[in-house]
Amino acid sequence: MRASKLILGTLLLATLAGCDSSGDFADLQAFMSDVRAKPKGSIEPLPKFQPYEAFTYSAAALRSPFQPPVKIDLVNRQKGSKEIKPDETRIKQFLEGFNIEVFQMVGTLSNEGGMFALVNGAGGVHRVKVGDYLGRNNGRIIAISEAKIDVVEIVPDGEGGWLERPRSLSLKERS
């Protein structure tokens, strides 16, 4: 028992002898002297950031690049009329904020109040009736049948007049 204590003490002394403070710490001393040589409170300034420039998408009202361009026959082109023009004083309906191409007719409803059409688009299914407006080109619903919705749009002719353009939304069958 006494021998094991003697061996343990010898190992402890040998370990402590290895922790001699006279070792070579030149690299640590050089680093510390560099740190002490820097002036106190010298913080690098923050980098200059470029201000954010907002981007406004200005082509929203133009023709979709995914639709084929409309070929216009300049000789046989319809001339607009000054009598036909959209009513700028009326309050716009919700479905006029979307292009008519996003809507699909999905069904009809009828009751004592008349016939209604169901159109899918603009975030859901909407019920419309004759006289409601649909699409961005002042499209007014003029007729609803079991198979289609007839719409008349009022579009500019490019020369200061307006044209009435008929369109139809056909019933979309289940696919």
UniProtKB/TrEMBL annotation:
Keywords: Signal
Keyword Protease: no
InterPro entries (UniProt xref): PilP (IPR007446)
Chain segments annotated as transmembrane: none
Pfam families from the UniProt entry: PilP (PF04351)
Signal peptide residue numbers: 1-26
Annotated protein name in UniProt: Type 4 fimbrial biogenesis protein PilP
Species of origin: Pseudomonas turukhanskensis
Gene: pilP
